[in-house]
Amino acid sequence: MRRNKSSLSEAQSYKEMGEFWANHDLTDYWDQTKAVEFEVEIESEATYFPVETNLSAELVSLAKRRGVSPETLLNLWIQEKVKEEAAAE
Q1: How far apart are the C-alpha atoms of 63 and 74, rounded to whole Å?
Q2: CB contact at 8 A, 29 and 8
Q3: Is the pTM of this model over 0.70?
Q4: pLDDT digits over 27-70, tens only?
Q5: 33: phi > 0 → left, psi -120 to 50 → alpha, else beta; which?
Q6: How far is CA 52 from CA 17, 26, 36, 63, 72, in A?
Q7: Which of 82, 26, 42 is nearest to 8 (CA)?
């Protein structure tokens, strides 16, 4: 990965980049941008599981406090638990 993650913000991390763009407007830097072309291939699959209503509400609340989506938080927790279980076998 490049040393600077962004040429405009000169950020060294994604957090710094986020902080920069939270306080700046792209239109102020538009003349420093260039057109690019890229392809995105998304091959994700979703599986749905029922979650109790009160548990779902708690998940939404916790995710909001952490600044992530409930889906992201739930997936992170499941990944952690699956790794723990696999290590215990």
Answers
A1: 9
A2: yes
A3: no
A4: 998 998 888 898 888 887 888 999 999 999 999 999 999 999 99
A5: beta
A6: 37, 42, 45, 16, 18
A7: 26
